[in-house]
Description:
By secondary structure, the chain is α/β, with parallel strands linked by helices. It has a domain at 1-101: Alpha-Beta Complex (Spore Coat Polysaccharide Biosynthesis Protein SpsA, Chain A). It is 33% helix and 22% strand. It has helices at residues 24-32, 54-58, 79-87, 107-113, 171-176, 189-200, 223-226, 229-244, 249-268, 271-274; strands spanning 11-17, 41-47, 66-70, 93-98, 102-103, 122-130, 135-138, 147-150, 167-170, 204-215. Strands 1, 2, 3, 4, 5, 6, 7, 8, 9 and 10 form a 10-stranded mixed beta sheet that branches. Helix 6 (189-200) packs parallel to helix 8 (229-244).
Amino acid sequence: MIIIKTKKIIFSIVITTFNNKNTIEKTLDSVMEQSLDADLYEIVIVDDCSNDGTWEILQRYNNFNIKMYRLAQNSGGPSIPRNTGVKHSIGEYLYFLDGDDWLEQNILETISENKKWHKSDLIISKVIKHTEKNQSVHARFMTVKTHVNEQSYKIPYLYYYLGPSGKFIKRKLIKDHDIQFPTNLHFGEDKMFFVKVFEKAQKVTTTTCIGAHINRYSDNVSIVRRTSFIKKRESDLAIFEYVLNMKDKKRRDKFLLRNLEYDLLTSCNSHVFLD
């Protein structure tokens, strides 16, 4: 009997999209054109019932490592599509990529070759933000220095950015602790998800290597910009209450400080709040 050994899937790149017909090809191509052997990663696409031709564009792709799913109706936010992507993923590490952002071409190979990093529950790469005016490092405090297999609360300001960009998460961590993007929040689902990820992650690696690019051009109108100040603060309150009940005092105190400095003081010292 001949036994054929299949290669282990290291990465599941979960692409969630809704009406991204102008950007989805660049997003998907950035994953398909990775320098890493395509046998070592999969692309899981979840379309949130687009009605602008995005789904029809996706149908042109039929690579062996692509899985495509389309929701029956629009979910109204990123949580259900991302949770769906997790459900259908098998890679060791998960990465959530929006349908208007893109990956650096060699990031999967870079992580794959650094075997020491694979002991971490979370690997965080540098993120470049693109606007009409310039390019800059997004949340630069996360990756200003390399940390390998470090406790998350020991890395300065790591908790201050709780979005998915640049973050490769061990799928086992999410599965073992049943961490999902909440569907009951109108805003801040990313924050709640990553608060729980950081709470459970035992080791974290950060690298100064560029991993991802995010689209912040003016025509990219996100739900963040459309959400009212009050709705945002309601979300912050739900996260604050969750953090208060954390058993790990070191992580709890770091998150409480973050909530005070970043969510409360910064938000209330703004034109929106003063108006």
